[in-house]
Amino acid sequence: MLSKDAVRRGYNRGRYVVGAHTPPAYVARVKETSATPGLQRDPITVGADIIASLRKVTDHVMTETADVVAWTRDWWAGSMMTETAGKPATPNAVVVRVSSVAQVQEVMRIANAATIPVTVSAGRSNVTGAALPVRGGIVLDLCDLNKLVGFDAESQIVEVEAGMFGDVFEETIQRDYKMTMGHWPSSFGISTVGGWVACRGAGQLSTRYGKIEDMVFGMDVVLADGRLITVGGYSRAAVGPDLLQLFIGSEGTLGVVVKIRFKLHQLPDYGRAIAYGFKTFAIGLEACRQIMQRGANPAALRLYDELESGVQFGMPKSNVLLVADEGPKEMVDAVMAISEKACAELGDRLESDAILERWLDTRYLTGKSAEGFTPSPGFVADTLEMIGPWRDLPAIYDEVVQAINAVPGTLAGSAHQSHAYVDGACLYFSLRGEVEVENRQKWYRQAWDAANAVIIKYNATLSHHHGVGLLRAPYMAASLDTAFPVLEKIKAALDPNNILNPGKLGLSDKVGA
Ligand SMILES: Cc1cc2nc3c(=O)[nH]c(=O)nc-3n(C[C@H](O)[C@H](O)[C@H](O)COP(=O)(O)OP(=O)(O)OC[C@H]3O[C@@H](n4cnc5c(N)ncnc54)[C@H](O)[C@@H]3O)c2cc1C
C-alpha cells in the first residue's frame, strides 16, 4: 500500500533533519560565509528598537550573518549558484522564531507599523527562491508553530498548525487515527503542511487524492496588519467567490497561514500496480488520457520518457508507465481493469512488480534530477513542472526538450508525466547543464527562458505545483496576461504597504505605500 509504505520506508533513507530545515547537499562545499548578498536589492535594515520589540513578543530573534544565511537558505538552484560563487542569497535580515498564533499577530503589527518586510519561512524546501527575504527585514520562521490541534473523527477533518513537517504529520495521523491525507510530495519529510498550502503543492498520489487545494477544508490566516481571519469551513458552498482558494498558492504574499483544517481518508490496506512500455512518449500520453477519460483515477499514473526510463528502470528503449492504486479492493480492481485495457491497446506489459519496487525504493530520494550525471563545479540540475491540455502535450514535450537541448552547455532535457486529470496533465521536465562556473546563471536563465517561451506559446500554465517565487516571477505578467493586474489589485488591497514577501509571484518589490 502506497501511503503506508511511505511511512514504513521513511524519507530519503532517514538522511534528513526531522522537524526542522534540512540543508541541501551543496552546503558541504561552502567554506566561508560572506555578508555580500547575491539576491538582495537594497535590503531594509531592522533597527535596534524594533529588534528589542520583537524579542519581547517572540521566542527567539537571530541577527548574526552566519545565522541569517543558514536560516534563509532554500533548495533553489539559483541560491546554490550564487552561494557557491561566494555570495549567499540573502544575508541581510533578522530571523524571528515563533510558536503561537498570537506571536505571529504581534510580529505583523510591529512590522506593519514600521513598514518592514516580512518573509514567511518554513521547511525552506521550495525550489523557486520563494522564501528568500529579497528586501531584507524580518524572516518569520514558523517551524515551531507545529502542534496537531484536534481531529473530528466523524467528518474526518484534522486541525493542525502550519509549521508541522509532513513526515511528522502523516506518521501521527496514520498511527493515532488510521488515516492518511494522501498528500505525498517528494519532499514530504523536509516541508511543512503550511508550505504545501502556500505553494499549492501536489503529491505523488494526486490522481486519486487530489492536489493540496482539494484537501483544505478551512484555515486561519493572519493578515499584513495582524488581524486573524478564518476562511473556508465547508465541503462546498455558494456564498460568493471562494476566499479560501485566494490564499492557497499565495506564497506568503497575502497573509500568514497559521492553522489548517484538512480532509483525511481512511488508510488503505489494499493496493495493486501494473506497468507498460510504449514505443514513444506520445503513445504513452495517449494511454494516460484514455485511462483518465474512461473514468479511472489510479493514485499514481507516471509515464517516463526514454531517457528517464533508462535512468529509473534500466529500460532506455521504452517509455515506461507505472499505474498504481490503493483503496477498497472493489474500487482498485475496477480502476486497474480499465487501466489495463487502455494500456494493452497501445503498449506492452512489463514486469510490474520489479518496476513498482524500484519506484517505491527511490521515490523519496532527494537530488533525483541529477541522477545519471557526474556533478562537477559547473554542473547545474533543475526541474520544471507545468500543466497543459492533452491536445497540446505531445507537442509541448517535443518542443520544450528541443528548446532546452538547443541551449549551449545543456547535457540533457527529459520529462515524465507526473499528475493526470480528465482534461490534461502535468509534465515534469528535468534540465541538466555543465558550463564554466561563472556561466552557470546565464545557462540557467537561457534554459528557463527557452522552455517557458514554448509553454506561454501554447497558453499552458507555468507551474503545476512548485509555484513561482523568484524563479518564475519574470514570466508571470505574460502568462496571466489580462488577469495579472487583478492579482496586483488584490495584493494592494490586502497588503497596502507591500510588506508581505515583496518581489514574489512577479509582484513589485517596492516596500511602502
Ligand atoms: C527534493 C524536493 C522534492 C520536491 N517535491 C515536491 C513535490 O513532489 N510536490 C510539491 O508540491 N513540491 C515539491 N517540492 C517543493 C517544496 O517541497 C514545496 O514547495 C513545499 O510545499 C514547500 O514547503 P516548505 O514548508 O518547505 O515551505 P518554504 O520553502 O519554507 O516556503 C515556500 C513558500 O511558502 C511560503 N510559506 C511557507 N509557509 C507559509 C505559511 N504558513 N503561510 C504563508 N506562507 C507560507 C513562504 O513564504 C514561501 O513563499 C520539492 C522540493 C524538493 C527540494
UniProtKB/TrEMBL annotation:
Keywords: FAD, Flavoprotein. The keyword Flavoprotein applies. InterPro entries: Alkyl-DHAP_Synthase, FAD-bd_oxidored_4_C, FAD-bd_PCMH, FAD-bd_PCMH-like_sf, FAD-bd_PCMH_sub1, FAD-bd_PCMH_sub2, FAD-linked_Oxase-like_C, Oxid_FAD_bind_N. Gene3D superfamilies: 3.30.300.330, 3.30.465.10, 3.30.70.3450, Uridine Diphospho-n-acetylenolpyruvylglucosamine Reductase, domain 2, Vanillyl-alcohol Oxidase, Chain A, domain 4. Residues 87-267 form the FAD-binding PCMH-type domain. Pfam families: FAD-oxidase_C, FAD_binding_4. This is FAD-binding oxidoreductase. It comes from Tardiphaga alba.
